[in-house]
Amino acid sequence: MGKVYIIDVTNRDGVQTSRIGLSKLEKTIVNMYLNEVGVYQSEFGFPFTNHEVNYLNANLELAELGALKPIKLEGWIRAVAKDVETAYRLVPKIRHLNMSISTSDLMLEAKFGGKFSKEDIIKNMQAAVKLAYAKGAETVGVNAEDASRTELAFLVDFAHGAKAVGATRVRYCDTLGADDPATIYARLKTIAEKVKIDLETHCHNDLGMAVACSVMGAKGIIDGGQNAYINTTINGMGERAGNADLLATLLALKYSSGLKDKNMFPENIQLNKIWAFAKYASYAFGIPIPVNAVGVGDNAFAHESGIHADGALKNRRNYELYDYEELGRGEPELVESGRMITVGEYSGIKGFANVYGKLEVAFKDDAEAAKILELVRYANVHTQKPLTREELLFIAKYPEQARKIMTVTP
Description:
Blueprint: E1 4-8, H1 24-37, E2 41-45, H2 53-65, E3 72-78, H3 81-90, E4 96-102, H4 105-110, H5 118-135, E5 139-145, H6 152-164, E6 169-174, H7 181-195, E7 198-203, H8 210-223, E8 228-232, H9 246-255, H10 274-285, H11 306-314, H12 349-358, H13 366-383, H14 389-397, H15 399-405
Helix pairs in contact: 1-10, 2-15, 3-5, 5-6, 6-7, 7-8, 8-9, 14-15
């Protein structure tokens, strides 16, 4: 039986959300959290984009140092030779790529102006895959953009073409969130059976069904005899109405009636890290967690109705499907009263030492403290908000990588 893996795309699709974004330091902390949660792979950015280069190379250094292991760091590019060449010129140590190309008749006409036939699409994709492997890629996923509006027969041909040149997986992109759970199940099961290649689901939430489509698509892939890779984002961030939410997807695999006995919950996932991750992402993106968000919303475990409150007090399972402790919730949030000293771009050494002392970080001498303070000042300018505990600890532990991550040269 096939297995389910999570490929999180917060640092690629999530940061494409209109009117918001993450600093490179914040993207790095997202990768650190994804690694702690046990996510298989992070789509950590765009290796053909100049402003991403230092961040991407520094994160690959962190992987070599063991700070980002066992998670795989994968870059997103277009399935064209130019992007492959640029990616390996700018980020020579990148080993995992997902490359995207449009496949629907609508996009071939409206996006490409009819310049490419379906045969051209497959040939261009194959050339890019072969070039990536020649440059040193270890895995290459091929993305069929707008797959949910692409004829099934062509998706099968496209997947066969990808498999023929050694692609690791094919990503089925429900780019506009147009699919429904029954349809995506049937389509992915058919592709898995006919092509015998591992498949990914990439679902958007325009109709409110991103999680439902993701898990049922994954079931179709498993039932078709292949491994399933589900794309998610933390807090469901993403373009327009967002992507499949990481936590909701995991909980659906673990607790929904039709899936909980199918052994589809991914290996190595640590759900107790999710609460802290969701809170950090909310702070970093500057977007509050909705009160009714699955698992991490303020009302996720709140009961007001007399009947519900009484039932929950007698036995929480009456009105709670899973336990808040499983998600890492329940620990008190400590808020200092009275004097509070923070670290910012104009901080002095005394206040800085006070903050790091509370984090139980000691510096060997004043010179080292001054070096870290200067980086922290830059980080405050970089993020444009007070630094979190995780960010402060990261800078102290990996100062050289932090310096590179925060360096953007126009």
